[in-house]
Amino acid sequence: MQPNPKLFIMKKQLLIVVIVGFFSSLTSAADLYVRDLGAGGSYASISAAITAASDGDRIIVRPKAGSLPYIENLTIDKSLSFVSEINFSKYILQGTITVTPAAGRLVTINNLQISGTNAITVSADTTGGRTTLNVLNSTTSAVNAGAANTTLNMSGCIGTGITMTHGRLTGNKIT
Fold first, then answer.
1. Segment 1-43, tens digit of pLDDT
2. Torsion-angle region of 67 (φ positive above 0: left; ψ -120 to 50: alpha; else: beta)
3. pLDDT for 57-111, tens place per residue?
4. CA nearest neighbour of 82 among 119, 121, 53
């Protein structure tokens, strides 16, 4: 009795599908929550969530009651997304945001309001690839993405100054 070549190919394809499915389930992104005082087992600060996060994770920030700000300076050294836990409400940060560049790094910031004259800055030139910073529906005093190999995409924001070398600005109100 000779082996059936079609059956062998089908088994091989099934094995490949199972292996790919297994590894893709290991690399799925996580949602990390930030709430005032770490309510409900969440992180008490945005910095703590950044430290615990892996590339591709989403950090969901609940605006503090009474429009109080999170008081901290953030260094983002991973590809992360930041969103507000409450639709159409901005979370407030009193501090600076520094994005450490790296080839392929993607940082997306949604619904943020930076208080005072603090800024979002890409700290240095990216070598070997491009860093992308997306700032959406946010209020900032300044965004400095003028470093080499940095793309800034900014939409629906209010601010006072932008420095950039590459990217798109759409629907912003800049004074």
1. 566 666 556 556 555 655 655 555 455 789 999 999 999 999 9
2. left
3. 999 999 999 999 999 999 999 999 999 999 999 999 999 999 999 999 999 999 9
4. 53
DSSP-derived pairing of the beta strands 70-71 and 91-94 = parallel
Please report the sign of the dihedral spanned by the C-alpha atoms of residue 114, residue 94, residue 120, residue 84: negative
Q: What is the DSSP letter of 141?
A: S
Q: Which of 26, 71, 24, 29 is nearest to 46 (CA)?
A: 71
* Per-residue tokens: 31: 């949602």
List the alpha helices (DSSP H) in 38-167: 46-52
Closest Cα to residue 33, out of 5, 7, 53, 3?
A: 53
Residues with Cβ within 8 Å of residue 51, at least 6 apart in sequence: none
SS3 60: strand
Residue 7 DSSP one-character state = H
